[in-house]
Amino acid sequence: MTDKSNIGKRRAAAIEKNSTGYNARRQEIINAAAQVFKVRGYRGTKLADIAKVLGVDRVSLYYYISSKDEVFEEVVTGVVIANTDRIIEIRDSSIPVREKLRETIEHVMNAYAENYPFLYVYLQENLSHVAASRVEWATKMREVNRRYTQALVDIIQQGYDSGEFRQVAPADVVANGVLGMVSWTNRWFDPNRSQVSAEVIGKGYADIIIDGLCTK
User: Fold this and answer.
1) How buried is 129 (Cβ within 10 angstroms: 0-12 exposed, 13-18 middle, 19+ buried)?
2) I need a surface site. Which of 83, 100, 169, 174 has the fewest CB within 10 A?
3) Contact 205, 155 (CB under 8 A)
4) Burial status of residue 123 (CB atoms within 10 A of its CB: 0-12, 13-18, 19 or more)
5) d(CA 24, CA 30)
6) CA neighbor of 26 nearest in space, from 5, 10, 39
7) CA 157 to chain centre
8) Which residues of 135-167 are buried (b: 16+ CB within 10 A; e: fewer)?
């Protein structure tokens, strides 16, 4: 029987050592996990599924990762936070508000492609239904989601306040509509297969939304 406690100690020591080879293999496992999560979802994925993609046995994964939860959180946390920070930066910039909205939409779409499939994996996760061991992480990420959405709401409201955007609906309604439009691409967009680039999609969506909002 495998001594997971011993493996855990070896894993902790390897992480602390910061070995290039170890880190590269761990990242390879994380990338493979992202692909499996994309297909099966979080709840439908087992470590054995990730091991199968890599052509190894499940036990060998424990030297690099402690659990499915750890892999999932590793897959999405960094890119989600970085994406949120960028949108907040755009909101707080001094560029015209219509350019803020355009840059936000284009950035989100490009981020989906650059971090594929990490952000799409995250979109599939229901943070309201997580195991007790993941409550702290889920709480943190719900706050990140709130900041992300609020930044876009603020941009829409800035356009209303300046008179640059027509007040077609409350700012939060418009913001959620924009997010829904762009996020729905998780159902059909794969940057490795799509004949249309993320850049083209982002620019097209931005044109549609901004043309519908701008007063002139």
Assistant:
1) exposed
2) 169
3) no
4) middle
5) 10
6) 10
7) 25
8) eebbeebeebeeebbbbbbbbbbbbbeeebbee
Choose among 101, 112, 89, 214: nearest CA to 155.
101
Selection from 185, 180, 214 nearest residue 198 by Cα: 185
CA 40 to chain centre: 17
Q: Check if the beta carbon of residue 36 is closer than 8 Å to that of residue 45.
A: yes
Dihedral (CA of 150, 154, 156, 157) sign: positive
Please give the Cα distance from 34 to 116 (Å, whole number). 9
Q: Which long-range contacts (CB under 8 A, 24 or more apart) does 34-41 make?
A: 34/75, 34/117, 34/118, 34/121, 35/117, 37/72, 37/75, 37/117, 37/121, 37/124, 38/117, 38/120, 38/121, 38/124, 41/124, 41/125
Residue 81 has pLDDT above 90, yes or no: yes
**SS3 call for 176:** helix
Q: pLDDT tens digits for 144-200?
A: 999 999 999 999 999 999 999 999 999 999 999 999 999 999 999 999 899 999 999
